[in-house]
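Human: Cast an eye over this sequence-structure pair and say how the chain folds.
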Amino acid sequence: MTVVENTRKPRLRGAATRFINARLAAGRVAFPLADLVEQPGLSVTAARNQLLRLGDSTVRVSPRQQFFLIVGPEHRAMGAPPPAWWLEDYFGWLGHPYYLALQSAAETYGSCPQALQRTQVITNVARRDIEVGRIRVRFFVKRGVSNTPTQPLANAFAPMRVSTPAATAFDLIRYAARLGGIGRAVETLLPLLPLISVPDLRRVLEAENETATTQRLGYILSTAGRSELAEVVRSSLPAKLTLIPLSPSKADRTRGNVVQLWRIRDNAGDLRL
């Protein structure tokens, strides 16, 4: 028995370092604790202790989750690698769908009117925001997240799904109240318009099936002079529409001109369309 124990110790000593180096060599900067326990054959306690001895080379995404990020020298100042490098692994571990969304998605398409402080992600269940080092990830919930058209993030370090331009535009209107209001959403949306194709827009409208958001998007497209896209939106709407405010977050929903085609009351003021 003593001989067996002595032969095991050298293999287990430094197991976390070898595991992390192998992970980095494979182009991955994240891992669940269970993988570290399973591959070298460490106990949970031993695995945690070895990670602690590595200092700021690794960090947990939150005190409640056994999921770790590998922090290379180039990311020590931020305290964590960029979310785009590890969110795919993170949601694979969680077993939930996700995609890079809203202003974060728009930024990947070149629309970034303002510097973002948080990475915005849509998933299918409520989650606490992640704050690790100086990295912030904010989560938004959508039941039909798996139906939303997405595509791989171009030129990415790691695999990642991002909403298509049309899906990004739709989400910006849907979540406008949580993004600073309809004006902020439109400011981000306008640079996306040349990237939105008719087939992509049709797929989004079929997938989302939200009449009020569709009305608002159609009105904005029409006002912005994108008549072809606006016609696609109008054809997807029912013949009879309920009158709704352009900005549901505004206190006064009774002021503003009514546009009968969209049954929209423009209570948002000057959107600079």
About this structure: The longest helix spans residues 211-223. The radius of gyration is 23 Å. The longest strand covers residues 135-141. The chain has a mean pLDDT of 91.
